[in-house]
Every structure is written in C-alpha cells, then in structure tokens.
Amino acid sequence: MAMNLDQEHELTHGTVEQRVVYESGNEMAAYAASQINYHIMGYFPISPSTEVAQFLDLMKANGQHDIKLIASDGEHSSAGICYGASTAGGRVFNATSANGYMYMLEQMPVQAGTRFPMVMNLVCRSVSGPLDIHGDHSDLYFALNTGWPILMCRDPQSVYDMNIIALKLAEDPEVRLPVLVASDGYFTSHQKRRVNTFANSEDVLKFVGERPPAGFPHTLDRNNPITVGPYMNEPDYINNKYQQSQAMYRAEAVFERIADEYAELTGRKYSMLDTYRMEDAEVAVFLMNSASEIIKDVVDDLRRQGIKAGSIAPNVIRPFPQRQIADALKQVKAVTIGDRADSYGAYGGNMSNEIKAALFTHGNHTTQVISRVYGLGGKEFYAEDGMHLFELAIEAAKQGRVEVPFDYYGHTPGNPDAAPARVLNPLKFEDLKTGLITVTKNEETGKLGVRIPPLRALTKKPKRIAPGHGACPGCGIFSGLELFFKGIEGDIVALFHTGCAMVVTTGYPYSSHKATYIHNLFQNGAATLSGVVEMFWERKRRGELDELGLKDDFTFVMVTGDGGMDIGMGPAIGAALRNHRMIIVEYDNEGYMNTGAQLSYSTPLGHRTSTSNIGTVQKGKVFHHKDTPQIMAATNIPYVFTGSEAYPQDLVKKAAKAQWYAQNEGLVYGKILIACPLNWITKDDQGTEIVDAAVNSCFFPLYEVEHGQTTITYNPEDKDKRVPLTDWLKTMGKTRHLLKPENEAALHEFEREVDRRWQILLTKHEHPLL
Q1: 8 Å CB contact between 270 and 262
Q2: pLDDT tens profile 175-214
Q3: Strands 448-451 and 438-441, how do they pair?
Q4: Residues in domain Thiamine pyrophosphate enzyme TPP-binding (predicted)?
Q5: 611: which of 57, 122, 621, 742 fits an S-S bond (Cβ 3.0–4.6 Å)?
Q6: How many CB atoms lie within 10 A of CB 21?
Q7: Which helix (DSSP H) or strand (DSSP E) does residue 264 occupy?
Q8: Stretch (H or E) spanning 385
C-alpha cells in the first residue's frame, strides 16, 4: 500500500490523535480494515474494487495486519466464505463491484436474514450488459432490498470513516446486521484526497471494541450448539422478517449515536442526511456520493445570483432517511433528483420514487419533483451539469408544474443514419475451408489421425481476428489463438468470456472479430454457448437454416482465460457432463490479468501477483496451481489437449482433432499457455522462448487425452531438451525471487510438485487404462 505511515502526526478537532495522509478511497477502505484487523476477508477480484484486496495483501506481505485473506473462485463463493466466517463469531470484511455483487446477490439476504454482522465495501460500477467497468449506481440499487444497512461515501475521507463506523453499527446489539459501505468506482475509489486517520490502531479498536461482542451465538461454541438458517414456515417466517425489519429501522438511531461518538473523537460528524444551504432554499438538487460535492459549488454560484438554492445528499440510504428528507424539502418549491441508475419502467430511479414517497407520506403535496437519470457508465458530472439540474428545478418553481417529470440527462438520442458501416466483409467459406487438413478416424484404435501441410501453406488462411486490437505489446493471446484457429476449417461461432481477449477486441463501435462473436461473463460462458449449440442443431433439424446456405456445420468455440476457468469452472463441467458439441479453449496467462494481475488458481506456487505479494513475511502465492486439463479429462469428454505456440505443428494438429470431435462427438477442452509480458515482467519479444522453457522444464507438458487415454505429444526428456525449472523461472520478473537463497524451500516444493505431476503423466502415457 502507498500509505506513508511515517507522515507527521496531526491532531485535528476531536480528542483522538490523528495523522494526515493523501490516499484514494480504495486505499482508505483497506487501511481502515487493517487497523480493525479483521479475522477473515474472502474476496474475488473485480474492477474497480480489486485494489482493496491488493492493498491488504501488500500490507499482509509486510506484516502490517493479521487478516486471513482467502482468494475465492468467484464472487458467489467469496460471499459464502464471508457468511460462513461470520457464523463462526469473528469479524469479516469484503469488497466487490457491479456484476461481482450481482453474482453474490443470492447470498446477501441470507446473511441479513440470519443476522450475522460483517462489513462489505461496494465500489459502485455499471452492471453489464453491455460491459462497462466505470462508475454508476446500478449495482447499488440492487442492494436496496437485501436487508443490509447502506452507508454512503462521497470522498476517501468518508470511505475511511464509514468503514470504521460500519463495523460498530453492524455489531450493535440493537442491529446485528451486515453493513454495506458504498463509494463511487473510479471517482472515489481511485482519486487521491487528503484524509485524516486515527494515528494509532489501538484507538480504532477502542472505538469499535477489540473483539466481536460476547453473548451472541456462533457456530464454534461447543457448549451452545445452534442451528443456522433453518427451514421456516408461516407464521414464523413473517415474524422473522418483522424482527429483521425492526432491526433495520433501529439502525437509524444507532447510527446517529455512533456518529456522535465518532464526531467527539475525530471532529467529523456524519448525519443521516447531509444538507447544504437548505435553511431557506426554494430550489434544490438531490445527488448521492461523489456528485454531491460538485453540486455545492453550483449552489454557491446560484446564491451569489440571488437564487435560494440548496442541495441534499444522504449518508445512509438504508434505513432510508425519509423523515429528514421530507423535513429538508418542506419549504422547497421544486427539487431535481439525480439517479445514477434507472429503475426501468418505474418512471424514475429508485431515489426519485423513494423521495416522492417520503414527501407524500409526510403530507407534502406541493414540492415539484423532477427525476433525471444521469452519469451512467462513468460519464463525468461537471458543474455545468449540476447547473442544468438546477435550471430544471428553477423552471418548475416558476411554472408551478413540471413539463417532463422523468427523463435521461447527458445521453445522445440514436440516429439510424449514423449507424456504423461494416468495415470488414464476412470471411469467404472457400478461404476458410482449405482442404489442406485431413482428419481420419482409426476404426481399430478409435483415435484420430491428422495430416497437416507445412505451416507456410496455411499462412494464406485468413485470420479470424483482425489487426488493430488493443492488446499489450508482446501479448501471447492472439498469436496463440490464431495458431489454434489455423487448424480449424470453415465457419466458427465464438464466445469470449470477460477477459483481456474480450476487452481489447470489442471497444464499441469497433470490433476486431471477423466471425460471429458473443460475450458473456466469466461464470456462465459455457452454459451460454451450449444454448447456442443446441439451438443450432435443433433449428437445423427443423429445416429452419436451409435458406442461409450453410455449406458446412459451424464449429462452436468458447475462448476463456484470465482466470475464467476458476469462476467459470462449474458451468464448464456442467457443459462437459452434458457433452455439447463445442470447444472450450483456455489461454492461460496464470492470473486475472484483465483486472490487475491478481492471483488465479492457475497461478503457480510462489509466483508474485498483486494479491500474492513479496514481502518480509510472504513470498508469493502459497498454494499450488490447478491442473485444469486433468479436471476436465475426469469428466470423460472425448478430447482434452494442451498446446503452446512454441510448438506450432503440435497445436495445429490438436486444433484439427478438436474440431472433428466437437462436430462429431461432443465437448473438447484445450489449454494454451501464453505469455503476459506486462504482468510476468518480461520483455515483449521473448514470449515464445519463455513458454518454450515452460514446456521443456515439464511445468507445462504437451499432451492429449483422447477417449480417456493419455498421450504425451512432446517429451523433452526423449529429445534430450529437458531443462531445470529454474531456467524457466529466471526468465520472468514475477518469479526471480524464487532463486534467492531465502526462498529455497518454496522453490524445492515447486520443483517437487512439477516433477510429481510429470511422473504421473508419464505413467498415464505408458498405461492406457490410467
């Protein structure tokens, strides 16, 4: 973490010693968590919240806290880890964003309904689709009905403060609910600001309490066994929900009491509702989080013009500050409410409709309400945008009515005449079906024989992906994929998981894909493509595709990578068990490179990533890498293979086999090791040599599993080319630390595991029944 803990201590207004730092919202969330020293953080990387886990891991590497950081296989899993940990009586922390929050959404009401406290940071981001990684509140609005109190943060200072207040609120005996701390992705999460923090962690613990409050049941108390999450019928269920509802409403008074205690310590006061120059305001604007600071400058400008303007922003939206909002608006003639997300079909965003309900409930039928959806997908909000929102309120106040109660602001209406024209014509089938590759089945052995021409003969075959994508220099994804595609004859339909290969090829309105392309998220690509596959075969059976002039069947290919076979493993196994006729090809760059090089289950032991840092007490990833090809082979699919661009003939032959099996028998899985110069910390032009060393060190053996029989297709020992594992490790900046004397034990453990897996593979190669 960039936190400079040697900065000069500063005592601000309040009674506790503080220091000033200059940090981002994500850094402050991590720093607050480190001062509390939570027991457990179960996490999964997703932008823009990934940095929270990264900063905590870096601090952990240097011994600055004792939090057990558990990298999960997906956000649903991370929510389960956190829930399980919270039932066991300790303090639990997490951070997520957007689709990651959506993936864990099923777990959120479970935790609230069973009343186990924890703190989770929601670093707000647009929910797909289409995919957008920038900030709005579309994920936040899904949280409104989960039963979690929600605290709002407009700047890094409030991120720090609210994270400390949140734990005390969550654990209060009158509340006992998990609490969400929401900040704006990239606006607050990444922008650095001046922040006052507790100078000493001891003072933080004195405020929140040094351990979870005693007297509440948990699952580790052998003398008081409990049942967590029982099946519950009517009338018990409604009674349970009533008690949960009452706890949420009690959270308002508890928050205000805790906020008063915090203000006495720090000099910083957080009310349920922040009001600015609202004492005599006649027009107002309601905004949340980062935009609510910008609007204050607009208020000041209007006041200088003699216009009685004011602004309001909530610090808490669950429980909703209904009474406070109604009171703030009782003399206001018109208010514009800005929602950074839509509630589709409801004629206003969630905040607009809740504020209307607040006014109605408290007898205000005169204030004119204008609802505008703004700032979606990270669209910047400037003072002139704030002025526009005030102009709407000023006009409504003058007219005594609202011309357009609900609309979007900042959008550009579509124009059919401006639709982008096709740049690349569809690939010609005749160019894709070269006839130079032949695959024949040996009826006696059941295995396939492949004949390919010299590779130069395939250079005329058009590339499936056009140049002009945004991949990093030296990225091995596209050289590896294009080599694989050389072995595929005819038309393809490709689905790409979220990841580097997807992001850098499809920046709207441009696309590098010459063939039909589909995107779905990490966790459900295999299921999505299986639906496409089965629809193709069913429509073909019904004769509905005859008019399209298909000269051959499509080959369906799912491209995954960047950790996609962690979060996407379950659906991939499901597709394998159903045996759909498709190919899953994984480019393995040994991490979640598209979100900032966090560790994946494919990251090998000891390798450095942004969540397996090198420090005084931690030396890289602490557990071994997942053997995905062997997992997929265990599902008994027809064909599994590994490949490398360093051995092009081998990869092209395997691609041809993969196509035959996918069109004739069922699902195929292949794994291609590819170089990532940026995050492996290597030179751009050395990718082929590096993956070649991985193969010759037996870390990444080249083999295939055909109908359960393993065949090593390249044995470096037979070629007298096997090299020590260290020859591969020394080529990468992320692994050179393993060659230092102090890391000798980790190196030897890694070497033993690589050799163990190689010996098992040799044995399977020699014995067809294994």
Answers
A1: yes
A2: 999 999 999 999 999 999 999 999 999 999 999 998 877 7
A3: antiparallel
A4: 553-659
A5: 57
A6: 22
A7: helix 236-266
A8: helix 383-399
